[in-house]
Structure formats: C-alpha cells, structure tokens
C-alpha cells in the first residue's frame, strides 16, 4: 500500500517530473519545433510562408482543430529525407528522456508525406532508425503507430496500409487522426478490419471535437483498443459506464484541449471527472511543439490548475499509462514496480 495522503500537493511537481511514465498520444510531426522547421526548410530549399521562427510561433493561436491542422501540415512540408524524419524523432526522444518517459508509442501521418512525393519507405526508415536509437541512447522503448488521415478517402487509407506492408515489422498499430467533424470512424471500417487481420493494434481519435457517437462507432465498428482524446464521452453517461466497465483507455491531452478550445481553461478540464468515473485515463502531449509543452509540462500544469487532483490521481494516471500501452506484460510489470518505488519513497 502506498500512503498517498502522506504526499503533500507541494511535492507533486517534483514527483510527477521524476516518476517513470509512458507516452501514448504524440504525433511525431507535432513535435517539430519552429527552429527545426526553419533549419530543415533551409537545408531542403523549402519555402515557408513565415519570415522567422518568431513569426511562425506567433501564428500558433488556434480557434479549433482545423485551424491548427492547416499550420501543422504546412510545418511538415519541410520533411523530405530519411535523415529529416530521424532528426525530428530524435529531438522528441531527447525531450521525452528528460521527462522520464520510458515507453513511447509515436503516431505518424504517412499521407502528409506521400502526397508530397516522399516515399513511405523514407518516412518509416527514418522513424524506425530513431526508435532503435531511442533505446540505445536513452533507454526508451519506442514504437510506431501509422495514422490514416480521416479527411481523405478510405481507398487512400487502404492504399497507404498496403504500401506500408514491406515495413510491417516496424509498426505496432494503426490510428485515425486529422479533421474529426464530418468524418465518422465508420468511414474507415474496411481498412481497420484489414489492419486487424494483419495483427496490428488499433486506436482512433474520437470525441475530441466529435460527438460521443463517434467513440461508440470507433469501438463497435473499428474495434479499437484505445480512444485518443475521448473527452466528450461525459455527454453520455451510458458511454462513460461502458468505458469504465470495459476499461477502454482514453489518451487525454490537456494542453492540446485548451489550445484547440475544447475547454476554455485547464481549470475547466474534465480529467478529474474522468478519473472519478473510474476511467483508464492517461495524460499525453499530442503536438507538444504547437501546444506549449511536452509530457511533464502537461502533467504539472494540469495538477496545478485542478486542486481536485492529488498524489493518488498522479499515481493512477502514470500507472494507467503503462496499463494502456502495447508493451509486454513483463515490461509493464517492471515499470509499475519502479513507479511504486518512486511513490513509496515520496510518502
Ligand atoms: N493530428 C495531429 N494532432 C491532432 C489532433 N489533436 N486531433 C486530430 N488529428 C491530429
Ligand atoms: Zn492527437
């Protein structure tokens, strides 16, 4: 037993910083910092619509998901070569290691690159080499989740999955991202069935801007194992009860939700309600270069803004990050042991 009541709130920032954790919702293209965007643009001769790093950063003032996606896809246009994808992911892993991330499942959007003429093998080779280097340089266990862009057709998603098959061994799963409204999960029923037959894990963004019905169809039609975001589930008490009973993980991204106006402020975020309902919620950074912070920034800002969250919730969130991951049972057990030690030492 860990005596959570013995851990004062004042100890939480240091504890959150030093505890081991998994990151399950990070779009690697969303970790491209403006400085790296400009460096790659110069190296690759790509023209940008912004004069300077400062001007680009100043444009990060979003009104909704689409207003962000427009800038995010423009930022990704500087990625052309295997070394660019490797450099982007290594910059993320260095930040993640500083945050004591020991396991990371990275989303990537191949269609953003293949539609510009970059071969999918170039994308996956650079990211997969970075995942191998993450283990040797930082001790991070990293894997890749190929995401389909939901504003494009299912035929395009199917073609993307088939094109990725020579690199199947580098993929742990598939996901679904981009513009949610008007693009329900059921649009991608066939490609998720195909991915399932290939033995890939399945996740999907749902209930970020879209209604609870999208969370239900992600579960029932796509048969996903985790819901990315999912915060709008609270609009359906029956759905909340189901998510709790089935222990469906939600990969929640608090700073993202505020930047994209899903919640007005962090103080109004529903993370405490999700945890109180017994949901397997986790905290993640989504697109850290665009939303003002990496994983520890998300954790610390969220705990600071929400006094209902204490040491027990901190432990639960970090434990959930391992439980919800696609790591082996042995790896999960070892990380939870380490987490227990860190919390016991603080109590
Ligand atoms: N792609 C990158 N970030 C995303 C988000 N928060 N929602 C949907 N698609 C995304
Ligand atoms: Zn996301």
Provide a compact summary of the structure.
The protein has 17 helices and 8 strands.
Explain the overall architecture:
With 347 residues, this protein is an alpha/beta fold. It has one domain: Metal-dependent hydrolases (TIM Barrel). An 8-stranded parallel beta sheet has the order 1-2-3-4-5-6-7-8. Helix 9 links the parallel strand 4 and strand 5. Helix 16 packs antiparallel against helix 17. The radius of gyration is 19 Å and the shape is globular. The mean pLDDT is 98. Bound molecules: adenine (ADE) and zinc ion. Zinc ion binds next to strand 1. The site of adenine has 11 residues, from helix 4.
Q: What are the defining features of this structure?
A:
347 residues; alpha/beta; TIM Barrel; 8-stranded parallel sheet; 17 helices; globular; binds adenine; binds zinc ion
CATH class: Alpha Beta
Radius of gyration over C-alpha positions, nearest whole angstrom: 19 Å
- Individual helix count: 17
Helical amount: 40-55%
Termini, distance in Å? Answer: 10 Å
Number of domains: 1
Order of helices and strands: HEHHHHEHHEHEHEHEHEHHEHHHH
Major sheet size, sense and barrel closure = 8 strands, parallel
